[in-house]
Task: structure prediction
Amino acid sequence: MTDEILELEEEEYTSNLTAPVFWRIFGLLKPHWKWVLGFLVTIALVSSMDAYFTYLNKQIVDQGIKLNDFDRVIEIAWMYGSFLLFQAAFIFIFIYLAGVLGERVQYDLRKMLFNHLQDLSLSYYAQNAVGRLIARVTSDTGRVSDLVTWGIVDSVWAIMNITTSLIFMAIINWRLAIIVSVIIPLMMFVATKFQKYILVEFRQSRRANSKITGAYNENIQGVRVVKALGREDENLVEFQQLTTRMYRASYRAAWLSALFLPTVQIIAAIALGAIVWYGGVQIQIGLITIGGIQAFVSYLTFMMWPVQDLARVYAEMQHSIASAERIFKLVDTPPDVHNRSDAIEAKTLLGEIEFDHVDFFYEDRKSVLKDFTLKVKPGETIALVGPTGGGKSTIVNLLCRFYEPNNGVIRINGHDYMDYTLESIHNKIGIVLQTPHLFSGTVRENIRYGNLSANDAEVEEAAKIAGAHDFIVTLEKSYEQNVGESGNLLSVGQKQLISLARAVLAKPELFIMDEATSSVDTLTEALIQRGMEALMKGRTSFVIAHRLSTIRRADRIIVIENGTIAEHGTHAELLRQRGHYYRLYTQQFRHELEVAYGVTEEIEGNERANVTADSIMVRRETAGEEAVAAD
Amino acid sequence: MTTTTSPYFDFRDALHPNRLVGLWRMMTDFRVSYIAATASLAISALAKTSVYLLLRFFADDVLGKGAMLGTSMTQTFLWIGLGFILLALVEGGGAFLSGRFAAYTAEGITRRLRDFLFDHIQRLSFSYHSATPTGDLIERVTSDVDALRRFFSEQAIGVGRIILLFVINWVAILYINVKLGLLSVVVIPPILWVSLWFFKKVTKAYEEYQAQEALLSTTLQENLTGVRVVKAFARQDYEKTKFEKDNWGKYLKGKLLLLMHSLFWPLSDIVLGAQMLFGFVYAAFMAINGEITVGDYVAYVGLVVWLIFPIRNLGRTIVQTSTGMVSYARLMDITKQAREPLTDGSIQPTGPARGEIEFKNVGFIYSDGTHDVIKDISFHVKPGQSIALLGSTGSGKTSMVNLLPRFHDYTSGQILLDGVELKDYPRKYLREQIGIVQQEPFLFSRSIRENILYGVGRSVTTEEIEAAAKAAAVHDVILTFPDGYNTIVGEKGVTLSGGQKQRVTIARTILKNPRILILDDSTSSVDTETEASIRDALNSLMENRTTFIIAHRIQSVMKADLILVLDKGQVIQKGDHEELLKQFGGMYRKIYDIQTRIDEELEQEIARVN
Result:
C-alpha cells in the first residue's frame, strides 16, 4: 500500500475531544502563551471593529445625511479612519502572531517526534510502516498546529463577529435582533452538515486520485508487458472506471461546495425579508431608521462568513484531534531496547562473544532462533550461511542489540551485554548492510558518517583502504559529488564501497556485514572483497556470506537453518560432510565461475532498473518489515 | 477503435503553439457549459447588485415618497421583503449553477485528459519509454493535470467572476452618479499592480517554503529507512541536529512568508479603506447637498464594497494562471509524441500464424543512428522448431527477438512470417501470435488470478486457469497463500519469489496459447531447484510452437533445432549442437569447454579438501 492510502485511511478516523487530550493539545501552547494572548486580543478587536464599521455607516446616514449635519459626517469619518488604521495594525499583529506560532508549534511537534523516533527500537519500526511514521511527522503535526492557531483564530473571529454584530443590532432595534438570533443556529446547523458531506466527498476523490496515480505508475513500469500482451484496450477501460469514480466524487464535492454558501445566504435572506417587512412597519412608528435597515442588510449579508468559518473548524476539529492522539501515542511509546539504570560503559568488544542458549521471536511470536549457542574468540571471522528466513539476520540484529534475547544471555567479555550502555556498544560496531543505505549529501559526508571528527585526509585514507577511492576520484566532483536521494545517483556496487569506507572510518572492534546478493561488475566485486579483507583484520567479524571467497576466508562457517545451527566448522570440514553446506557451495561455485568466464550474464543493469521502479512503491513499506523479511 | 465507458477526446487535436488557443481547444464540448457558468455568474452578480437597488427604492420611493405596491403600506413592506428573498434566491441559484457548471467543465475536461494520457502513454513506442524516466511521466500526469484542473475550475472562472463583479457594480454606481463612480475607482489600477507584484513574490517565497518542506521530508525518510545504520553508528544526536537544521530552516521560511502576508493584507486594507471612506464622505456630502438621494447613498455604500475588495484577489488569480499555461506545455510535450499504430497493416490475417520465420539479411540501427545493433542476420525456422540464441551481453540477442512483435522495426533486410513480410502485418496481430516470457517477470498489483488472466483477451473458466497454473508448476504454491488465487500480489506481506513470479507469467503465457514463443533467459534469476521446475513447465509450453530461446548455458540450448551464436550483433556460428561442437576454435565449443571445466574444477576443489 502506498503512503497516501495509509494516510487517507487514517484521516477517516475522528475522535471526540476528551479532557486529558484537550489539556495536552493546549499544553503545546503553554510556552508561547504571550503569543496566544496577543493574537486572541487582536483578532477579537479586529472582529468587533468590523461590526462597528457597519454601525458607523448607519450613523453617517442617520446622524449625518438625515439631519444634514456636515460636521457630524466629518467627525464620524475621522473616527472611521482612525479605527481603520488601528484595525490594520491589529490585523498585522494577529496574522503574524498566529501564523508564526503555527509554524512554531509545528516545529516543536516535529522536533519532539523526530527525537523520540531516534530513541525507539527496531521492533517499533518493524510494526509501523515508514509511511505511517512519515505521516505522523508531516501531516499530523500540520493538522494539530492548524487547530491550535488558525482554528482558534477562526473560531474567535467568528464568535466575536456574531456576538458584536448581535449587540449592535440589539442597540439599533432589539426586536429585529431577536429574529436574527433565531436563524443563526439554523445557519450553523446547515453549514455543519454541508461541511461534513463535502469532507466525505473530498476524501473519496483523494482516495480515487491516489489509485489513479498507482495505475499510471504500474502501467508505465509494466508497459513492455502491456504491449507484449496487447492489453491496451482493456487497461483503458479499467482506468476509465477509476477516473469515473474520481469524477463523480470531485464533481459532487465541487457542487456541494457551490450549494453551501447560497443555502446559508438564502436562510439569511429570509430573515432579511422578515426584517424589511417588519422593520418597514416599525419605521413608520419611528422605531427604526433607514440607516438601521441598511445596517441589518449589511450584518446579514456578511453573517455567512463567520458561520462558514465555524462550520469548517468544527468539521476539521475531530480529525485534528485524532491526529493529536496519534502523535501523543507515538511519543508515549517507550523504547523496547534501552539502557539499564546501572548500565556501565563497555571498554572493548574485542573479547569473547558468547550466545548462551538464546531464544528469540518477533511480535508474531513465531520462534526465529531456538536455543542458539555460539562462542566466538576475539578476532575471529564467522561466516553465516543458510537459506533465506533461517535466522541469519536475527543473529546479527541481536548482536548489534537492535533487539534483545527473549531467553538466554549474550555475553561480551563474560559480561551480559545488557549491562553495557547501548552507546558504548554501538560506538564500537561497524556495519555494512545488504542494501547499502546512504544519505543525501556528498560522498565525503557519507563516509564521514562513520566518524564525525575525522578530517579530510582520514576520510580519503578510509576510502583507499575500502577500495572506494579509485572510483570516487573518477566522479565529476570527486569527494564533493552529490550522491542523490538515498544515494540513488550511484550504482549498487559504488554504494557498497562507500558504506565499506564508512565502516572503515569508524575503526570498529566488531565488524558486521550482510553481503549483497545482487551482483555487481567483476572489478567492483574484487574491490569490495579487498575492502572487506582490510576491515576484518584484527577485528571480530560476522558476515552473512554469499560469496565463495568470503566464505572460504572465514575462520568458521555456521550454517543456520530454521533458527538453529545445522552445521558448523571450517570450509574443508564442512565440504567433507557433503551436507547442506556442500550443496550451497557447489551451486554458488558453478554460478561464480560461469560469471568469471563470462558465460553467464550478470543482470545488474536490469535489476537496478527494477529496484528503482519498485522503490517508488516499496520504499514506503516498512524498514522494519525489511529487517524482518530480510532474515 | 477503442471501446469506452466515458467520453474520449483526442487531445492531439488541442495541440497549438499558442497556449491560450490550445487551452481553448481543450474545452471542446465543454464551451457551452463554461459559458453557462459565466452567464450564471453574471445573473448572480446582477441579483446581488439589485439587492442594493431595491434598498434604494425602499428608502427613496417607499419611505420617502410613499409609493405603494398593492393596497397598503404593510403590503408594500411585505412585497419588498419578498423581493429581497427572491433576489437572494436568484443570486444563490446563479452562484450554485455557476459553481456546478464550472465543476462540470473542469472535472469533465480533467477526466478525459487523464484517460487520454493513460491511453496515449501506453501506446507510445518502446524507444520513447526507454528514454523517459517513469518519475518524470508520473509527475506530469499527476501534478500538471491537477494544475490544469485548477486552471479550469478556479482561475479561468475566477478572473471572470472578479471582472463581472467589478463591471456590474461599477455600472450600477455610475448609473446612480457618474462623478461618484469615477471617484470610486481611482485606487484600482495601483492596487491591481501591487497585488500582481506581491503575489509573484509570495508565490516564489511559497515555492521556497515547499522546497524546504521537501528537503525535510527527504531527511526524515532517509533517517527512518536507514534506522539500522543510524543506530549501528550511534548517530542519533547527529541525526537530531541535521533534522533540527532543516526543521528550523522551514520555520524561518514560514516566518518570512507570514511576514509578507501580514504586511500585504493590512496595508492594502488601509489603501482600500481610505478609498472607501473617501467615497462615503464624498457621497454623504452629495446626499446632504441633495445631489443624490438617501437611497442612492445607502445603495452606494453597499455596492462599493463589491467593487473594491475583490480586486486584491485578481492579482493572485492572474499569477496562478501562469501555472496552468506551463502545465499545458508540459502535457503537450507528451501528447505530440507519435503512437505505435497497432492495427495498421497491409494485410489483415484472420487465422493463427503457422510459425514459419525467415530472416533475410536483417539489420537494425537505433534512430540516433550511432551503431548497428544487429546486422546481416539470415536464417530460416520451420513451424514448431526451436531456435536458440547464445551470446554475451550486448551481442544483440534481445534486440533481435524484439523485432518479431515489432517492438522495434528492422531497418534493413526482410523478416518473413509464413512467407509474408513482417511489416505488412498489424502489430496487434503479431503480438497476439507471440508469447514472451521475460527475464525479469513483471506482475501487476492485482490478484494472482487476474495476473494469470492478464491480456488473455477471452473468457476463461476457473478450471482452465488452474490447469495453466498446474502446467506452470505454480498451482500448489498459490494454494499456500492465505487467499489462494485471490491473493493480491504485494499486499499483506505476500511477496512472491523470483521463481514464483516467473511461473505465474508462464501460466499466463500458457493461457494465451501463442503460436510463437520467446523465452528471454527465463531461468537466470532463480535458484537451481526452481530452475528445474521452470524448465519442465517451459518444455511442455514449447511443444508445437516455434520457440526462440535466449540463454547462456549450453544445457539450455543443446536441444534446439538451430543454434545461433551471436557476437556484436552478428551471427558468428550457426547449426545444431552436434555440428557446433565439431567446430573447434569456435565460440560455441569454447563455452562448452568452459562449462565442462567448471565441473572439473569443482570436483578438484572437493577432492582437495578430502
Q: What stands out?
A: Chain B touches chain A through 159 residues (CB under 8 Å). The two ends of chain B are 70 Å apart (CA to CA). Confidence is low (pLDDT under 50) at residues 1-5 of chain B.
